[in-house]
Amino acid sequence: MRMMFVTWAWPTHFFPLAQLAWAARAEGHEVVVAAPPELSPTITAAGLPAAAVGAGLDIRPLAGRFFASLAARDSPLEWSEMRAWGTGNLATYRKIAAAMLDDTVAYARAYRPDVVVHDPTSFAGPIAAADTGALPVRHIWGADYTIRTREFEAAALEPLCERLGLPGVDSVGAVTVDPCPPGMQVPAPVRRLPVRFAPYNGAAEVPRWLIGLAGRPRVCVLGSTAVAYFTDRHVSPLPVVTRALAGTGVEILAIGADRDRGDLGPGASQVRHVPATALHLVLPHCDLLVHQGGGGAMMTALAAGIPQVTLPLFTDHVFNSRRLAAAGAGRWIFANSADVDGVRRELLDVLHTPGYRTAARALGAEMAAQPPASDVVAHLAEMSV
């Protein structure tokens, strides 16, 4: 079987696809990951072959105004308001697909894949599958936020399909590969193929000091790459978290190289900066993750069985945070409403209330009970015949 994975140039959209690609290669199938050239180093660092398709595209001018409007809000933007925008919800992803489409289809025609796997925002994938007759497979990365735009996707993609003489495309494909724990997933009229989540946040070394007990509670703090990229505000939750935990004796691990951490206040001595490692290597040694609600970070923490506090700003991050809280595995405060006292209350509540960890471990157990990626590969091989 030949499998072609399609994603655009955002590493956290590629990472969830890696385990299925690894499993396919381990079973002797042919695999290639088609993505814009700037993602090739990330793909090859994961030990997978990359096919560069399309040209580099700066998406900040495409989506910057939308994200700037989110940064100025006093409350989350709700789907009831967004739904009125119709196909406008997909404008950025349609432009990304348009920039990748010709190269992706040309590569698919030459490669002749049996299966095309794509993340739910990489619409060049299902169109290439329709053009070549390959089995289209949608691969999500957590709670299914993007399913809400399905009603608009056919109309949004119609001009791209017309370029190839296609009557249209079903953007959810034949099946959706789903690593989300069932207790956190949303109902949707799609055929789901559950898969065990394998945490992967990029190639990295394990810091030697990390192995072993910390001797005191350890809180990991992670900034969002998307928030950092699209806005000049809310780059990292670290300053408010550090001030909130000042004097508590909690060790704070600051992951990543945020461009502006700000004044950390009196809790600065409790912070250990970890600029060059991957989240999946750190979280098994922590008691709590604080982040901005991204799906990859949330799933990685659940796999480690640790609770979370999120400070979301973007709409998908709010969606994820609500699903997490509903499952009992964490708490959240809208980023623009977060102050030191409020964050302190939430952090100490989650750290010291066993129910949050119990719920997180239960979701982690659900994830571990799902079929391994090798079973999913075998199922896709049968479907593609």
TrEMBL record:
Signal peptide: 1-23
Residues in Erythromycin biosynthesis protein CIII-like N-terminal domain copies: 22-221
UniProt keyword list: Glycosyltransferase, Signal, Transferase
Key word Ubl conjugation present: no
Residue ranges annotated for the Erythromycin biosynthesis protein CIII-like C-terminal domain, each copy included: 251-383
GO biological process: antibiotic biosynthetic process
Pfam families: EryCIII-like_C, EryCIII-like_N
Single GO MF annotation: hexosyltransferase activity
UniProt keyword Hydrolase present: no
Family to which this protein belongs: Belongs to the glycosyltransferase 28 family.
Protein name: Glycosyl transferase
Protein source organism: Winogradskya consettensis
Upper lineage: Bacteria, Bacillati, Actinomycetota, Actinomycetes, Micromonosporales
